């Protein structure tokens, strides 16, 4: 625990803890629980951070959801307890409030709890809500950033999110439908000099494309949808706002998928470097090794 405090910049606390450990019996100090809120990246274990891996290997309990792939879970401490909490839209999902309280309870039992999330915990990850509850209950925690889907998936699809000639800004938006509509500031989003990255958009794809055209983008604006980005089962479908919904439907894509809209999508033709489809890698590997863990 002392080393962990130093790594997260809490030197004063670390020194106090060390003093306490020398003074008292070590067991007292060691029983202090903590929560690590860790981003696991988009799925490929190569994209974990060293910090994530270090904490994965020392945690007593792993609380994970669907986006965390099996190869990543396999890198966690072997004898750690594993708790699957699912995610929204999943019938078996544990409600968010219950997850928040579970983290508090486990930490108060003195456990080192790893809350493992896909991508980055602070980007469409509800990480903020989880640590708010920890703060309320005085549970110590640290947050480990992860490669968010937009960054990881764009790299592996060969689509730079900004480019001096095509896009001066990027917007990360959620395509999650609420009562069949989007609660979105379309004027700020639908701009031809901006790349739009849409998370959770597979279901709403036709409505999303329609809305973007209605709010000013041309129907021939390039767009791509990427399934299982960064993984051997990655598939990239490209088209434009008019054609993408039908192309995606024909391809029978499986979640998770990420949508990228903007002129930068054209660059994939030249820059696409990761082509697992063409190398037969897909056929020789089990898709994601744990499809159950993906939405
Ligand atoms: N916190 C996560 C996002 C959680 S929301 C992050 O920072 O990436 C879940 C959405 O992320 C999915 O619906 C999908 O749109 C996107 N996503 C996550 N992993 C992905 C992957 N490997 N390929 C494509 N999209 C992915």
Name a few traits of the molecule.
single chain, 295 residues, alpha/beta, Methyltransferase, Cobalt-precorrin-4 Transmethylase, Domain 2, 2 domains, five-stranded parallel β-sheet, 13 helices, 33% helix, binds S-adenosyl-L-homocysteine
| Range of strand content | 15-25%
Approximately how much helix is present in the residues? 25-40%
Q: Give the H and E element order.
A: HHHEHEHEHEHEHEHEHEEHEHH
Which descriptor suits the 3D outline? elongated
Overall average residue pLDDT: 90
How does this structure look, described?
With 295 residues, this protein is of the alpha/beta class. It folds into two domains: 31-147, Cobalt-precorrin-4 Transmethylase, domain 1, CATH 3.40.1010.10; 150-278, Tetrapyrrole methylase, C-terminal domain (Methyltransferase, Cobalt-precorrin-4 Transmethylase, Domain 2, 2-Layer Sandwich). 33% of the residues lie in helices and 18% in strands. The protein contains 13 helices and ten strands. It has helices at 2-7, 11-23, 26-30, 50-56, 70-73, 96-108, 127-136, 149-157, 186-189, 205-214, 244-251, 268-271, 281-284, and strands at residues 34-39, 61-64, 81-84, 112-117, 141-144, 169-174, 194-199, 222-227, 235-240, 257-261. Helix 5 (70-73) links the parallel strand 2 and strand 3 (81-84). The longest helix has 13 residues, at 11-23. The model is unreliable at 283-295 (pLDDT under 50). Bound molecules: S-adenosyl-L-homocysteine. The site of S-adenosyl-L-homocysteine has 23 residues, from helix 8 and strand 10.
